[in-house]
Amino acid sequence: MKKLRIIIIIPAIILVALLSGCIKINISTGIDADFTAFLSYHIELDVSDVDSRYHGSLSRALNEIGWHYQEELNFIADLNIETAPFLLTMTRRLQNNTFEQAYNSLEFLLTNEDMTPFMIVDMAIQAAERHNMYILNASTDIPHIMSLSNAEDLSPALREQLDLALKTGEGEITITMPAGDLVNSTHQINTQSNQTVMIVPLSYTEQTAFELTGTVNLLRDGTIGGSLEEIIEDQYRLRNIVFIASIAISGLLLIIILIIFLKRKRTEDA
Questions:
Q1: Which of 134, 199, 161 lies closest to 22, judged by CA?
Q2: Is the pLDDT assigned to residue 104 strictly greater than 80?
Q3: DSSP state of 151
Q4: Distance of alpha carbon 7 from its chain centroid, rounded?
Q5: How far apart are the first and last CA of the chain?
Q6: Using alpha carbons only, what angle is made at residue 139 by residues 94 and 37, rounded to the nearest 5 degrees?
Q7: Cα–Cα distance measured from residue 8 to residue 64, given in angstroms and rounded to the nearest whole number
Q8: Torsions phi, psi of 211, nearest 5?
Q9: Is 131 a residue whose pLDDT tops 50?
Q10: CB 2 within 8 A of CB 140
Q11: Model pLDDT, residue 111
């Protein structure tokens, strides 16, 4: 059983629920065009209807969460409690030189029990010279996570209030990968600036799961091609360069041979 130290969810939901606020949690993860793997949490607390006496408790809870992720897990935390809603964003990025390295870094982020938002993660990659095929399947279960917290010890009245907050909570999981071909997913995807983006609604009352598979096409220098047409064009340019270089080298050799022949001819005539 995973440790499930997902303190980003449990304290915030319980506090906001008990104080009659509204919570929105967005989780972003994936690989950008520069082969940087990332995992980011964005928490938004609507405190407009919360008694100002409790704002201090909420801000301290968010500050504690941000401090833990920044000091213990090497995230960069940004907390804004000056105006409503209260906002906390925490992001960790791992830079890489290739898509294969980036995918391994992403797997580390999504399977590390101290920082992952998912209970089950299934990832695999098949690396080739000009393309990388990948699968990414994951799921989270907030009701189960809540059952592992101390929420069960709340009084019936507070537990009812917490259940109501879970039913009205909002959020989503955004998965971003370099655009490629043969992309299949369990949710709608779109392509933005050579990136494949899939947005999964985050459920607070049942399991949230998704599957994403695809092929990332790579140019000869290892950068993302984006389409098979670009790879073909890249190969065509390379063949032209090789052809021109071959002609140039052959011509140079012929000139050298001709010079040697003429020198020998002159020597023999002399």
A1: 161
A2: yes
A3: G
A4: 20
A5: 94
A6: 10
A7: 10
A8: -135, 140
A9: yes
A10: no
A11: 93
